[in-house]
Amino acid sequence: MTEIARTADVSSPGRRRRRSSWTGYAAFGWAVVYGTFGLVSALTGTALFYRATEPLPVGLNWAVVAVAVPAATATLAGLRPWGRRIPRPVLSVTLAGLCVVCGLAAFGLLMDVITLVFNQTVDSWTATGNRALAASGVVLLIATARSHRSSAYGTCPRCGAVHTSSTARRRPEPTAAPRRVRLLAYAGAAAFLPYAAMKTTWALGGTFAGVSGAQMLATAERNGASGVWLTLAHWGVDATALLAALGVFLILGLVRPWGQVFPRWTLALRGRRVPRWLPLTPALIGAATLAPYGTVGAVYAALGTVGVVTVSRGDLPTPGDALLVTWFGLGAFAVYGIALSAAAWSYLRRTQPVCASTEAEVPS
């Protein structure tokens, strides 16, 4: 049965202005907070950007201020009469560009979340705060851009159409993704099998790429792995293999109808629709992290395979062993990240609420 989420006269200009004001003020407030965060960190000499665990020059912190100032100006322009003198395409392009920049600044947030879950800490709280604020900015700037467009062109802020009567916001019936998207999702899930097998082999005490499970455990202890991580390892469970299994569950749920409805064993929620943000939040963060990270890593592995670059062996016996592990790891991230991007986009489109007229049809 189709779920009716909300009924309202979305053609009302007042309603469009209220929605535009809400998102605009929220985005403006974010820009002020983000700019202040960047300014204070720059003045106190606290690095916000890192390469792995190495802090980058503090001067890069001013980039946060350079993003926050136009963001505050653009969002405020949509709330004040003087903003109407700015051409609409200029505001749209500005907001889109700021979204891209904030997305780049948020890169690595997934790794921070994983580190926090298993280690109960992160490498740098200020860097993590910067990524979290940047990710929040992406969401608010997109919402502001949509609201600005709807108020400027007199369209529905949800579906983008022009309504002349009261409408009901309905969620479509659960459907599967198109066949090509499903096949790509299955390929992404399968790409994790060699990676999970490698990590599980080490967790169970076996040897792979010239390294035994005992050696990997000793390396993890030497590198300061948390008690949770080490406890799972002693039980024969690798934490990253467990995350890979959750990733497979996520991507399959994005392309199959069951990913849109709570299963029967969730007693209180049985049969109810899954909120769209619940799978989309980890999917979008994961896609934005794993797709570029894995793709760059796969290119690096390919260059190492043909001898253009030398792959660092790290804690592995030979560069050849390091190259094999790199293909199993970063190759899986590349395929899965690209597949997750396609699956998340398909889920976003298939679950998009639609507007339908609530006026009864009069028989002719």
Quaternary structure classification: single chain
Count of individual beta strands: 7
Helix content: 55-70%
For the largest sheet, list the strands in their spatial order. Answer: 1-4-7
Bulk shape: globular
Structural class: mainly alpha
Secondary-structure element sequence?
A: EHEEHHHHEHEEHHHHHE
Over the alpha carbons, how many angstroms does the gyration radius reach? Answer: 24 Å
- Spans of at least 5 consecutive residues with low confidence: 1-16
**What's the rounded overall pLDDT mean?**
85
Which sheet architecture does the biggest sheet show? 3 strands, antiparallel
Number of structural domains: 2
Number of helices: 11
* Relative strand content: 5-15%
Amino- and carboxy-terminal Cα gap? 28 Å
Topology, element by element:
Blueprint: E1 3-8, H1 13-44, E2 50-51, E3 54-55, H2 62-77, H3 88-105, H4 109-119, H5 125-153, E4 167-171, H6 179-203, E5 207-208, E6 211-212, H7 213-222, H8 227-234, H9 239-255, H10 277-305, H11 319-350, E7 354-357
Antiparallel strand pairs: 1-4, 2-3, 4-7, 5-6
Helix pairs in contact: 1-2, 1-5, 2-3, 3-5, 6-9, 6-11, 10-11
